[in-house]
């Protein structure tokens, strides 16, 4: 998986030592409330370890799940827990993780499953972009910055169309979709067996050289 870089962020492969952050992120109801049909939070570090292994084992030349890391800020200076000084509803096991610079969230580019009568759901053939950020890093434009970089990477890698779906109530993610140039296509139940707001972006037309 290719690492990406923006002015403020590094998007890289997840590492086993990131499990504390993953547990902290996905153990929070304010993060999980818009993810999936059956709301549940991550409970222990073994689940975080398993999630990281699954991300690392994605077998696709373009798709990936990136750890979004802040540039040049030592641990504790970006609002993340440092040496056990946690905030919110992170579990005890997630507190006290240490990384420098700190992580801010997750950026995903992956196959999106089609709605269907049987589980597991089958791939739809479409690619989706998505993001999950730690509440301490909301409101800084990091999701927009990271998502724009991954969308550009997707098109540079040969994808012609990328979609994003959000819960109807998830206005923050809908705004990110619009800021990175995606078009709102209304509501759909085409994916995830759920009613979602659908956004899409298509690869830009090749630039025409001088005649």
Structure description:
With 211 residues, the protein is α+β, with helices and mostly antiparallel strands. The protein has helices at 19-26, 29-32, 45-56, 142-156, 171-179, and strands at residues 4-5, 9-12, 64-70, 103-113, 123-133, 161-166, 183-188, 196-202. α1 (19-26) packs across α3. Residues 75-92 have low confidence and may be disordered.
Share in β-strands = 25-35%
Main sheet?
A: 5 strands, antiparallel
Instruction: Indicate the structural class.
Output: alpha+beta
Provide the succession of SSEs: EEHHHEEEHEHEE
Low-pLDDT residue spans? 75-92
Helix content: 10-25%
Mean pLDDT, all residues: 87
Across the major sheet, the strand order is 1-2-3-4-5
What overall geometry do the principal axes of the alpha carbons give?
A: globular
Rg, alpha carbons: 17 Å
The CA-CA distance between the termini, in Å, is 38 Å
Q: Report the oligomer.
A: single chain
Task: Annotate the secondary structure layout.
Blueprint (H helix, E strand, L loop, with lengths): L3 E2 L3 E4 L6 H8 L2 H4 L12 H12 L7 E7 L32 E11 L9 E11 L8 H15 L4 E6 L4 H9 L3 E6 L7 E7 L9
Antiparallel strand pairs: 1-2, 2-3, 3-4, 4-5, 6-8, 7-8
Keywords, separated by commas or semicolons:
211 residues, three-stranded antiparallel beta sheet, globular, 5 helices, alpha+beta
């Amino acid at each position: 998986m290719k690492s990406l870089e923006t002015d403020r962020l590094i998007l890289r492969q997840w590492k086993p030592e990131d499990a504390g952050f993953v547990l902290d992120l996905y153990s929070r109801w304010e993060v999980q409330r818009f993810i999936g049909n059956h709301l549940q939070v991550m409970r222990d570090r073994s689940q975080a370890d398993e999630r990281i292994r699954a991300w690392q084992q994605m077998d696709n030349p373009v798709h990936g799940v990136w750890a979004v890391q802040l540039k040049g800020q030592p641990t504790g200076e970006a609002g993340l827990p440092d040496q056990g000084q946690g905030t919110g509803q992170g579990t005890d096991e997630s507190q006290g993780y240490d990384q420098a610079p700190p992580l801010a969230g997750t950026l995903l580019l992956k196959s999106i499953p089609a709605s269907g009568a049987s589980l597991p759901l089958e791939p739809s053939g479409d690619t989706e972009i998505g993001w999950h950020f730690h509440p301490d890093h909301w409101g800084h434009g990091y999701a927009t910055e990271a998502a724009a970089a991954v969308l550009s990477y997707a098109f540079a890698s040969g994808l012609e169309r990328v979609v994003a779906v959000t819960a109807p109530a998830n206005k923050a993610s809908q705004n990110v979709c619009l800021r990175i140039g995606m078009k709102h296509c209304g509501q759909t139940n085409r994916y995830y067996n759920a009613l979602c707001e659908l956004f899409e972006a298509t690869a830009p037309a090749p630039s025409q050289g001088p005649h």
